[in-house]
Design goal:
heterotrimer, A alpha+beta, B alpha/beta, C alpha/beta, A: alpha+beta, seven-stranded antiparallel beta sheet, three-stranded antiparallel beta sheet, 21% strand, B: alpha/beta, Elongation Factor Tu (Ef-tu), domain 3, Rossmann fold, Ubiquitin-like (UB roll), five-stranded parallel beta sheet, 7 helices
């Protein structure tokens, strides 16, 4: 049980990019490399409550960027409503997700969220966003939005709900405003193999078969998680293909002097949960950003990131969009890598 | 062109494709107490379970089942039973069990020995027979005790105001469970056919007159299900519109030995034990989910085989079965000189 | 920087008769030849329960419409353009029963629209057969402005909505019935390669 009281930041993820991590925010960042090379295969692990004081502590993580992220989401949706879509048969799954997120946020952060249930009559209070709503669980007419849109406008990260049928998973609902470069509007309705189609390495297909088999057997009460990572120029959440003409040119603005401010490590904490009433699977994709200036304040991470980027295969660097600024970033990070050994594991040295 | 990023690959599979090690952890079991046992018909009893510690049970999706663990002396049985209670009701779960005198003893144990107050462990719900919510209409066809998963599904359909029909075949009215309740609650959407009155499901006519987007769900005796599914396929119903669930009871057969290469043990599988039961009885924690040959979770690699694997599952492909390199120990057996598994 | 070798386009297969009690066969242009092949593999019972809807074009001078009319199907309707053919299909599907099969052949944009109509009517993919014949031209959705540009034959293509130069990816959406187009020179405007005819 926690008594986390979060000091929410007032910051932007666009235009003037005032986003920063506090010192505590830096230390709890989910650094994705446990050793000095990035190996292609990454383990899935049970999404069990993790180390206190890290992004893994609670099943659904709310942090100091919550209010600002929700504001950015609202801006994205106003401009492009197609970033949230739910095919008609997915409403029940939306209710499942609403329950999951309300329960998780209220349980872990009682100072900020409350959920009161009286049969089907629920009352939800979200203090940081100034929301207080009473509604009937299961009745869409009692909420201002459909259940998935309602709750994901109040939860950090993107959410995809996949329907399980015909031995496959189908991406049939999503709230996608913080995503690294894929289009919900284009991909909605696709199955697992289809939405992974653009992955360029054909020999990966055997790998997708195993991943799909694993996901099909995910059970209620047993969520799992994995990490993914890439890099972004400026702390921009919305790096969608829709907006690519807007953010793509940022990649050409990196100079040796601004690497520390502009180049960001972007980590996705992905989890997979079986939803009870609909039998669908929800796939939260929680995005964390850190500038290299901030990252190198943890000496182990500065050394390690330098070594990971140096040894990253070219094709992987290309696929992650790093090619343009990789060398400049390596040159900058070299100053933070004295060759000393690094301890195993993700977390900062005490 | 965005030079990549995990473009269009939301699972990030581009950068970190497959899980190398998958966590084979069993979901924590639910401790329940039997609070009611009702004789529904001479052969069918209904059991209600409530959580032993007072916390709520998880909600579930219609069509789900739980694995009930039953200890009778030295014998530990784990059998799947469909949940028939309303899925949103979290204060109790209800199952109906037909006594099978030819079976391995689980239903006989429940009928004979389990009374209110008895404590059991059950798995959280798992659903291998879910509703396809895209369907414009749901045509439910059941035989006998196969009605149980549909009771839970119809509760969800009633709440969602779905279009559905139930066609239920029973031997005789008195042997049919829940007929009065079904007719009372769902009226004209329920059609009951009693064998002893010569009533049969008018299958061809039924299948010929459904709007596009109707899905068919069938649960009942094996022969009935095969007839219905074959008729539907021949009438042009695509596989995606056909849903069925049949728990394969692990077959009984001559006892045999199995060597477990990883554990370094050779174990004996008795006549009425499944291979999975025997592996577990030897203290080895093997993965499983449905225990009925359908879900693939217990798939085990065969290291060496001198003899014949008797594949009784629905999961492996014909090629996999022929290769002899994989086995589903929850339902399959072996005869021959030696079988070595990667366990 | 172009990522090459992305393969997520749909794969089509030669049309084969399937069990069913009503067969809706919808083709355009050279798709007629796939229908002739289909009829050749089918029995008379199949054709007696089949209705053909056909839009001539492409090598239409070859008299495909006459050939189709002579196959012995229960009905054969020749339409002047794709749109009325799709409308006729939607009408037929509105009252169709389970057991109905759809078969489609011809250009990719046309069969994509047939598949959309069938899925919209509640059909599942197992009751829909699609075979590509003829031109490789594509329908392309611009991911930026969402406009759909028809009859795309070049790489890159120009978006009819916003004028951007688009990389035509192999990534295809069945729901939209189009391939994805993404700005090819967003990072350095004006650096786009010259258009080559690739999807002819």
């Amino acid at each position: 049980m926690t008594t986390d009281v979060i000091d929410f930041r007032d910051e932007t993820f666009r235009d003037d990019f005032t986003f920063r991590n506090s010192p505590a925010g830096i230390r709890r960042f989910p650094f994705p490399f446990h050793e000095d090379r990035y190996m292609y295969a990454v383990n899935i692990e049970p999404h069990a409550p993790g180390q206190v004081g890290t992004a893994y502590e609670h099943p659904i993580d709310v942090d100091e960027h919550y209010v600002a992220e929700m504001h950015d989401r609202a801006l994205v949706l106003e401009r492009d409503p197609l970033r949230y879509q739910s095919l008609p048969h997915m409403t029940l799954a939306g209710w499942d997700l609403l329950e999951l997120l309300m329960d998780a946020q209220a349980t872990a952060y009682p100072a900020h969220f409350e959920l009161h249930r009286d049969g089907d009559r629920w009352r939800w209070i979200n203090r940081p966003l100034g929301i207080g709503d009473t509604f009937t669980f299961g009745d869409v007419s009692t909420l201002p939005y459909g259940p998935m849109e309602y709750i994901t406008r109040q939860s950090q990260g993107d959410f995809c709900i996949v329907d399980q049928r015909d031995g496959n998973l189908w991406m049939d609902a999503g709230m996608v405003t913080t995503q690294a470069d894929w289009s919900l509007d284009f991909d909605i309705g696709m199955n697992f193999m289809e939405w992974h189609g653009p992955v360029p390495l054909a020999h990966e297909l055997g790998v997708f078969d195993r991943a799909l088999k694993f996901l099909l057997n995910i059970r209620q009460g047993q969520p799992v998680r994995r990490l993914n990572w890439t890099m972004t120029i400026n702390p921009r959440l919305d790096t969608s293909p829709e907006e690519y003409p807007h953010w793509g040119p940022d990649r050409t603005t990196v100079t040796p002097d601004n690497v520390g401010q502009k180049v960001h490590l972007r980590v996705e904490l992905q989890s997979f949960w079986r939803l009870p009433r609909s039998n669908a699977i929800v796939f939260p994709i929680r995005c964390y950003l850190i500038s290299l200036d901030e990252l190198v304040t943890v000496p182990k991470w500065g050394r390690r990131l330098h070594r990971v980027l140096e040894t990253l295969p070219d094709e992987l660097a290309g696929y992650k969009g790093l090619t343009r600024y990789r060398q400049m970033t390596l040159d900058w990070l070299a100053a933070y890598d004295d060759g000393a050994p690094t301890s195993p594991g993700f977390f900062p040295d005490p | 062109m965005p030079a990549g990023g995990p473009a269009a690959a939301p699972a990030g599979a581009a950068t970190a494709p497959a899980p190398v090690a998958t966590p084979k952890v069993q979901a924590p079991k639910l401790a329940v107490t039997v609070t009611e046992v009702i004789d529904v018909t001479p052969m069918i009893k209904r059991f209600r379970f409530e959580p032993s510690d007072g916390a709520a049970l998880p909600p579930f999706s219609g069509g789900a089942h739980v694995i009930v663990e039953m200890r009778e002396g030295d014998v530990l049985r784990r059998n799947p039973y469909s949940l028939m209670s309303p899925p949103s009701q979290t204060s109790s779960y209800t199952i109906s069990v037909r006594r099978d005198d030819q079976g391995r003893g689980g239903s006989r144990f429940l009928h004979r020995d389990v009374r209110p107050g008895h404590r059991l462990l059950i798995s959280p719900p798992v659903n291998l027979f879910p509703i396809d919510w895209r369907a414009r209409k749901h045509l439910l066809v059941a035989g006998g005790i196969g009605i149980t998963p549909f009771l839970a599904q119809m509760d969800q359909h009633a709440r969602a105001d779905s279009a559905f029909e139930l066609h239920l075949s029973v031997r005789e009215r008195a042997q049919g469970a829940y007929l009065d309740e079904l007719e009372a609650r769902f009226g004209g959407r329920v059609h009951i056919y009693c064998d002893d009155r010569g009533e049969r499901i008018p299958l061809d006519a039924l299948l010929a007159d459904q709007p596009l987007g109707t899905h068919l769900y069938v649960c009942g005796p094996a022969g009935m299900m095969e007839w219905i599914l074959a008729t539907a396929r021949a009438a042009g119903w695509p596989d995606q519109s056909l849903h069925s669930e049949r728990f394969l009871a692990p077959a009984s057969g001559a006892p045999y030995e199995v060597t477990l290469a990883v554990a370094g043990k050779t174990i004996r599988v008795t006549e009425h034990q499944s291979m999975l039961d025997a592996i577990e009885a030897a203290g080895i924690d093997a993965p499983y989910m449905c225990r009925g040959g359908a879900c693939g979770e217990c798939e085990t690699a065969v290291v060496a085989c001198e003899g014949t694997i008797l594949h009784n599952d629905h999961f492996l492909s014909a090629d996999d079965k022929a290769s002899g390199r994989k086995i589903m120990p929850c339902v399959s057996r072996f005869e021959g000189r030696s079988l070595v598994l990667q366990r | 920087m172009l990522v090459k070798g992305i393969k997520s386009r749909p794969v089509y297969a030669p049309l084969r008769p399937r069990p069913g009690d009503h067969h809706l066969i919808v083709a355009n242009e050279e798709g007629a030849l796939a229908i002739v092949d289909l009829a050749g593999a089918a029995d008379l019972g199949f054709l007696a329960r089949a209705r053909i809807i056909y839009v001539p074009g492409g090598s239409a001078a070859a008299g495909h419409d006459t050939r189709l009319a002579g196959l012995g199907a229960a009905a054969c309707d020749v339409m002047p353009a794709n749109a009325p053919a799709i409308a006729a299909l939607r009408d037929a599907l509105a009252t169709a029963r389970m057991g109905t099969q759809v078969y489609t052949a011809g250009t990719e944009d046309f069969i994509g629209q047939v598949i959309q109509a069938a899925l919209d009517a509640g059909m599942d993919l197992g009751a829909i057969g699609a075979e590509h014949r003829g031109s490789l031209e594509r329908r392309v959705q611009c991911v930026h402005c969402k406009a759909i540009t028809e009859h795309v034959t070049t790489q890159p293509a120009t978006c009819i909505g916003c004028g951007r130069s688009l990389l035509v990816r192999d990534h295809y959406s069945r729901r939209i019935g189009a391939f994805q187009g993404v700005s090819i020179d967003a990072e350095e405007p004006g650096t786009r390669p010259p258009s080559e005819p690739v999807f002819a």
